[in-house]
Amino acid sequence: MRTLKRILRRPHIPRYLKWETEHVYVSGDLYFEALLSQISNAASFVWIETYILKDDEIGRKVLAALVAAVRRGIEVRLIVDGVGSQEWIRRKRAEYEKQGLAIRVYRPLRFAAFWQQLVGLRFSGVTRLLSHTNRRTHRKLALIDRKIAFVGSMNLCAEPVESVFGTNAWRDTAVAVTGRAVELLVRSVEDTWVRRRAEGKPRFTGLIRDNRTFIQRLRSHQRLLREIRRARHRIYITTAYFVPEQLLRRALRKAARRGVDVRIILPGTSDVPFLPWVSRLYYAKLQVAGVRVLEYQKNMIHAKTAIIDGSAWVGSSNLNSRSLYWDRELDVRVLQAKSLRVLLDQFALDEAKAAPYSRAVAGRFSIAGILGSLLSKLEKLF
Q: What is the pLDDT of residues 20-70, one digit of tens each?
């Protein structure tokens, strides 16, 4: 326990690192327009890591740009998740590898190995395979020429693009950053590409949250808790999947009680249908403490941002057990006044399209409450 406390108290913050430029995107159309432009103008390499890649209008445009880059002599690396991109891997991977794309699958599904272990009653092997399968890369990251990085919640698919999905487009947020710290992101993707064993000491703290190792996960979460506990004016959170652990719930309640303006925007309807039931179990105590919890009414809100006083985090992390314990995530801090203004303005627009959960929150002994409680326990495991 003493060792754990010492680890958590010992963050290494590279204070000399700052982004030279920040550009926040709250529109999928503008985001992919910028990304495609950067890929087309790349001079040396393009590395992309994503959870979901789809064979749709946007996925095909990005892949066409990557193939064109390969033909210009640009080094292109594409990392896709073995679960999130399973359909694309099965149908399209071979086709694009023939066109020169270097593609690697993060933890591919291994049904044959799982079946062999199960049939042979080798349950320790089954457990290891389940753990292997449950750990995904949920990151959405594109690196161009070691100069610019795109980070956020937008997968390589058309869902966040209004020109494709119209009023049903998902609400997502991303940021493009430049500066010396981009090199840290390059190393992170390189580690994933070559399957390099992670070092115990985290490299990413002040501007970047990476959670590859157990210690990085602890420190990242501890840092978020510390920022919430030190907040004096506002905590505005937008997240797609909200199943907060006890320390986070307590920190949010205490912040609201000491007068901090705490607001949380969550999806009213979700692409994971049972998640709103689970999230609503946590509303009551938060609301009693003064936290304003709202559900987005227009469509799916998939953004993952946290504005805390004068800075903000933008990335792929949700406030749930998957992001905390299982999935690889990546978030970057934005500090520039223009970025904060864009995020605050967008939060106000989202809030105008959201509403407090008006029905009585399900009690733990109601059918919905019991089901939600069981699902929340299942979510912590998987």
A: 999 999 999 999 999 999 999 999 999 999 999 999 999 999 999 999 999
Q: What is the DSSP letter of 168?
A: G
Residue 310 lies in a domain: yes
pLDDT tens across 194-222, in order? 876 555 444 545 899 998 888 888 888 99
Shared domain check, 190 and 292: no
CA distances for 103 relative to 46, 50, 53, 86, 262, angstroms: 12, 12, 12, 13, 42
| pTM summary value | 0.87
Strand partners, 307: 236, 312
CA atoms within 13 Å, Cβ hemisphere of 168:
6
Is the same domain home to 133 and 239? no
Looking at 197, 228, 258, the residue that finishes a domain is 197
User: Residue 79 is part of a domain; what is its CATH number?
Assistant: 3.30.870.10
CA–CA distances in Å: residue 168 to residues 1, 159, 297: 48, 8, 11
CB 330 within 8 A of CB 48: no
Calpha distance 177→75 (Å, rounded): 21
Q: Which of 103, 99, 153, 126 is nearest to 267 (CA)?
A: 153
- The SS3 assignment for 79 reads strand
Q: Are residues 190 and 248 in the same domain?
A: no
Please tell me the total number of residues recorded for the chain in this structure. 382
372, 323 Cβ separation under 8 angstroms: no
Determine the structural domain holding residue 126 and report its residue range: 13-197
